[in-house]
Every structure is written in C-alpha cells, then in structure tokens.
Amino acid sequence: MNSRGQAAACPLIVYGNRIGTLMEYFLELFFGGLTRGSIYALIALGYTMVYGIIELINFAHGEIYMIGAFTGLIVAGVLGALGFPGFAILVLAVIVAVIYSAAYGFTIEKIAYKPLRGAPRLSPLISAIGMSIFLQNYVMLAQTSDFLPFPSLIPEFKIPGLTGIITSSEVVIVAVTVVVCVALTLFIKYGKLGKAMRATAQNRKMAQLVGISVNTVISATFVIGSSLAAVGGVLIASHIGQINYYIGFIAGIKAFTAAVLGGIGSIPGAMLGALILGLTEAFATGYVSSDYEDVFAFALLVLILIFRPAGIMGKQPTQKV
Amino acid sequence: MNNNIKADKGKRPLAFFSAGCDSAAHALRRSVLVALWFMFLTFPIMVIKVDTVNKTIDWRWMNLLWIGIGSFVLSFVWRWLLERKELQKDQVSTEGPVERLLTSASSIPAAKWSLLAIVGIAALVFPHLAGMYQTNIMISCLTYVALGLGLNIVVGLAGLLDLGYVAFYAVGAYAYALMNMHFQIGFWTMLPLGAVLGAICGILLGFPVLRLRGDYLAIVTLGFGEIIRLVLENWGEVTMGPSGISGIDRPMLFGHKFGVFDSITFMYYIMLGLMILTIFFVNRLQNSRIGRAWLALREDEIACQAMGIDRTKTKLMAFALGATWAGMAGVVFAAKTTFINPASFTFWESAIILSVVVIGGMGSVRGVILGALVLILLPEYLRAFSEFRMLIFGATMVLVMVFRPQGLIRAKRKVYTYMGRKTAGAEHG
User: Fold this and answer.
1) Residue A157, SS3?
2) Which residues in chain B touch residue A302, judged by CB atoms under 8 angstroms apart?
3) B146-179, pLDDT tens digit by residue?
4) Which one of A66, A134, A257 makes the best mutation probe of the B interface by having the most chain B beta carbons within 10 Å?
5) How many domains does chain A have?
6) How many domains does the structure of chain B reveal?
7) Would an 8 Å CB–CB cutoff place A256 in contact with chain B?
8) Most buried residue, A71, A74, A273, B126, by most Cβ within 10 Å?
9) Using a CB-CB distance cutoff of 8 angstroms, which residues of chain B are in contact with residue A150?
10) CA of A65, closest CA in chain B: separation in Å?
C-alpha cells in the first residue's frame, strides 16, 4: 500500500526550459496554467455533475480519466502501426477513448453505486475508493506498471508572435476545453436531458413524480462526465508524452479540489475553480518553488473554504430541522 | 430469516439461476448479454498491448475468453446475491451471521465470559506460537484497530468525515523520530507526548473547519493531510525529505534493551495494551455526556445546538480525541519499524483507515476491530496471489459495501432497562 505514494510525484505537466524576458516568462506560465486549468476543468465537470445529482464523491472518476488515456494510447498504437496520419489518429483516439470511458463510467455506476442508493452516506464513498483501487490494479496487471511513452498526436503549428511561449498542443487543449464547456453549458440549459438533470439535481423524488426517468438521468450523467474526462486524458497524455496506471489519482484529487473550490454541484463553478487552481499552481511553481506546488493548491482551497464555506459559486443551503 | 428464501426456492427450482429474472431462459439471455458487454468493455485494455517505440502490437485473445466465461458465471452469482439482499430488506431483523453469533453469545453471561477469556488467552500467547512474521502482521493489525477506533470517534460518533486522518499519525511518528534523533528521548516519554501533540494538531485543524460541513470538510481534511505529507517530503533540512529517518530506538523496559526478536514480542504486548486501553476509553466515551453530545451532533446540528450543546466545544473535542490515538499509534509505528518516510503517510493510508471504520460498521467498536482484522489481514494472506492481491482487495471493498452497506457489525445504541423492561426507541440503525 505504501509504495503507491511514491508514484504520486509524477508531474502532470512538464515545462520546457525556455527562459526569455520577464514578460515572456510570465506569459509562458500563464498559458501553462491555462492548459493545466483546462484539463482540471474537463475532469472536475464529471465530479461536480455526479455530485450534483447523487451527492457522491466519485473517487473512481480519476481512474476513468486514466482508462481514457490508456485507450487513446492503444488506439494510437494500433493505428500508428497501420500507418494512419497524425491528425486522423488524434481524432479517432479521442472518439474511441470517449466511447470506452463512457462505457466504463456507465458500468461502474451500475455495479458499485446503484445498489447503494438509500444506503448510509459513507457506503458509496468506500465503494468508490474500492473501485478506484480495483481499476488501477486492473490496468496495471493488464498493461504495465511502467511509464509508457505516449506518441505526440497533436500536430505542430506556429502561432505568430507567440513562438516559444505557447505550444500548439496548449492551444488545442485550451480550445477544445472552451468548446466542450460552452457545449455542455448550452446542453444543460436548453437540452431536454439537461433540463431533466437539473430537475433531478434539485429534487430527485419530485423529478420522478413529473415523469423523469431518474435512472436514465443518473446513467447519462456518468456517461457525460466520463466522456469529458476521456477527452482530457487523451489530450494531456499527448501533451506530456507519457502515462502510467497511477496518473488518475493525483489528477482526480486536483480536479476534485477544483470542483470544491468553485462550489461542488455547480458547473460554471467547476470551470472557474479549475482555472484558478491551474493558474495558481503554474505561478507558484514558476515564481516560488516547484516542490511546494501541491501545498499551494491545498492551502488556497483551505483559505477559500474558510471564508466561503460552500465554495466560490456554491449556494449555502438553508438548514432546517 | 431464511424461511422466506427457502419458500421461494421451493416455488422455483432454478432460483439460483433465474434470480432476478422471470425464467431460466431469460436469465441465460441476460447473462450472455452481460458477458458480451464485459468482453467489449475490457477488449482494448485486456487484449491489445502496444509498444509505441518499436511499433509492435501484442494481441492476447485468450484473455477475452476468460473475461467472457468469468462475467457469465459471476452475473448469476451477482443477481442471486442482490435478490437475497432484496428479500432480507423486508425482514424486521437484518442481523448478519456474525452479528447473530455475537448477540447470542453475549446474551448468555457464561458464554460471553468464556468467549472473552478464550480471545484474551489467544491474544496473550499469540507471539509465542506464531513466528516473527505473523507477530509483525498482528502488530500492524492492532495499530489499525487503534487508528480505526480513533477515527471512529470523529467519523462514526461525531459524523465528521475526515479524509486526512493520517496526518496526525504522521505527526506522532515524526515527533518520536525527530526527538529520538536529536535529543535521545525514549519511547515511553514520547508516547504521552505524541498523544498530546496529536490532540493539539486536532484542535489546530478543527478551528478553521468548524463552519464546514459534509464533503467540504472531507476535502479540506484531505488537503490538510496532503499538506503535512508534502511538507515532510520537501522540508529536507528537518525531516530528511523522502529518504526518511532511520535508526529510531525500539522501546526499552526499565532500561533493559531487547534483541530484535524479543523486541517484536514486546512491541506486540505494548500494542495489545494500547488497544485494550483504547477499547476501554472509547466504550466509556460512547456512553458519556460528550459521547451522547457527539451522537446528537451527528444526527442534527441545529437541533443539537437548540438542546444546549456547545457545538464548537463538542466538535473540537471529537477532533482532539480522535487525533490523540493517531498520535500514539504514530509513535508506536515509528518505534516498531525503526524507519519512517513520508511514503507511509499518503492519502491511501487515510482511505484504508476510513475503510476499516466503514466496512466494520460505523460507530461500533466490535465492528472496527473486525474491519481491521479483515482489511489488514486480507492483503497479507492474499500474498499467495501476489500481484492480484490489491485487485481482490478493491473488489472486496466494493462487494462488502454493496451487500452489507451498514458494515459487518452495526452499531447498537445503549439500551436502558427499567425494571427489567427495555425502553422504547432502543434499536438504532
């Protein structure tokens, strides 16, 4: 059990050694933080959506992200051997990873959480922790416990004026995240299923009474959340260039921190929280010390929660007896 | 309790196969679908193994066959178990086999005392019968009992979800290691000091998080635990960083130094004593004024305040007393292993301790002891399966929670008997 902790030190984002002027350095950190925040946002959305609907911290969500990255690697490996061009591999890898992660999210909910509806509050949490341990070891046994090199799938292109400050993969990650976040917001606001989700989050019993199939809504929430995590998984793996079975844990904890920071259960809150967390970490790493990167993240969380106990955008629920 | 199931079996001869389905044919079709789904699900990860450097692909089709057969069989068992759980839900008494045994044993005083005596004697002679390796495992198991009982105060009684409990454990362990290294302070001096330090840290954490509730509290305590670990890892000048501190003194008995083998036996007895002390304290606490205040706080904060309970004091008390045991267990851990590093105090440790509490049965002392025995001994005895042990461990956590969500042994509130009769509201779920 103890040996698991040592792998936690693996970095989520690796910086290049380009030292330019002070302004360039600032911009480089800023875009690095933006990328980092984007990935956190993609994972945090899954946490916050699941929490909003069934009030469960889905500890296995980080593992879904990891499985997405692994599926992406496998697809990339197979297609690469068949001689597909880089961009086609990226698109196909993301699509297959999304399908598989969604399938895993769906199955996990059916096995580990659905039989526990109405059980004491901590039981599904322990079930989730067990699921997370199970999935990590499953991937470790079926694949490998070593770091695997991930092919660089995102094509290189130059951004005029910003060469050396922002890389093409950073641009792609941020752009994809923005598109996904906008689409998700619109879907939740105007889509039929999105409306059903909001209704279920507000009051499950009442939603059932007005004819919403709560089981479908919960499954859909897991499917959507898992798909977003898979997108993040493939993109960041391609950006960093290596993955192993343990990447889900630290990314999951950070994303969960981001979700709580923004106010858990709130979708714009998760995006904002992830952005703040990513930027804080990037600047703290760049200007203070890379050793204490995680300390800054958690210290920020503690500080914000002391002053706003329900997160930045969370609503403090009225308490009744 | 089993009558219902038996009657059901009588009606349907294929009850096991068709559990949860109308007919055997339907059940068969469902299981085939489940098998196909899992074959699809595990296809990329189980079958394909790519080497992106050499561009080679390894296809392992046999795995797919095993997954198919395995999930086909397991889906029958799964449905059967779920149906059994559903049937038992309607029963008034939902005691499990372990609980039933304990209830029947404790209802007869002679049986209760002889059972306790047998367990006591077995615990006393254990290190002389079993080898050094077994004794070592038992010590870590007892450590988890103490940790579990400490966390049980915070989570089980006061209902405050603490995911960073391991931080207090680390504080105790590092306090002893550092004091021993710099000032040669012995184990026996440090044991109470570790407890006090743990309590102080508990209060320090408790103050800022008083206003937080539920999962916000969980993530802040998780963050606190991680901060402590990261500081231990990075503050190299003081804590020796990731390489840790070695050569910590083992405990002595009135100035007598033990050899390696004897000192493990001695450590076992220390831990046994500490555990008995913990059980005694927690039992007394549970039924004391503060214990009842915790239960009230767990059930409803506002109602509890309205009854005149000081919320701040009660919460801080829970944090402090919970952390006390972690501090002591930390000192014992450092003395036992004679080497500590930050890798022993990761979030997983907290998760395991929390699992001990929840799987055993929240708020129940006997449950926590059983939970520690199951969760700590299981991975050790699963070493025969070597690499599969953590896989089985994770699956067990899920299965226990799905089929016994209230834990192995449920907590029972103390029942007052008035002139030989039980008062109302005795059973507590």
Assistant:
1) coil
2) 208, 220, 223-224
3) 999 999 888 888 888 888 899 999 999 999 988 8
4) A134
5) 1
6) 2
7) yes
8) A273
9) 52
10) 14
Whether residue A162 is contained in a domain is answered as yes
- A96/B402 Cβ within 8 A: no
Q: CATH code at A55? A: 1.10.3470
Q: Which of B89, B114, B149 is the last residue of a domain?
A: B89
Residue B428 lies in a domain: no
Q: What residues of A are in contact with residue B395 (Cβ under 8 Å)?
A: 130, 134
Residue in B52, B230, B351 nearest the CB of A77: B52
Q: Is residue A167 part of a domain?
A: yes
For residue B83, what are the domain limits? 2-89
Which token pair is B291? 């214990």
Q: How far apart are CA B27 and CA B24, in angstroms?
A: 5
Q: Looking at the domain assignment, is residue A231 inside a domain?
A: yes
ipTM of the complex: 0.83
Residue B74 sits in the same domain as residue B16:
yes
List all residues of chain B from 165 to 204 with a beta carbon under 8 Å from chain A: none
pLDDT score for A162: 66
Evaluate whether residue B256 is within a structural domain. Answer: yes
Residues 313-372 in B contacting A (C-alpha not used; CB under 8 Å): 342-349, 351-352, 354-355, 358-359, 362
Closest-CA residue to A271 (of A95, A47, A79): A47
A316 within a domain of the structure (yes/no): no
Is B426 a member of any domain? Answer: no
Å between B278 CA and nearest CA of chain A: 24
What is the per-residue pLDDT across B85-94, written as a single tens digit (0 to 9) for each?
877 766 655 5
Q: Which of residues 105-124 of B touch A (CB under 8 A)?
A: none
- Pair B85, B138 in one domain: no
The residue segments making up the domain with residue A223 are 20-307
Q: Tens digit of pLDDT for each residue in B104-161?
A: 666 777 777 888 888 888 877 777 777 778 888 888 889 999 999 999 888 888 888 8
Shared domain check, B212 and B69? no
| Model pLDDT, residue A317 | 63
* Nearest-CA distance B67 → chain A (Å): 12
B69 with B153, same domain? Answer: no
What pLDDT shows up at residue B2?
44
Q: Can you give the CATH number for the domain in which B296 is found? A: 1.10.3470
Residues B331 and B382 in one domain: yes
- Whether residue A306 and residue B224 make contact (CB cut-off 8 A), yes or no, is no
Please indicate if any CB of chain B lies within 8 Å of the CB of A92: no
Residue B119 included in any domain: no
The answer to whether residues B227 and B280 belong to one domain is yes
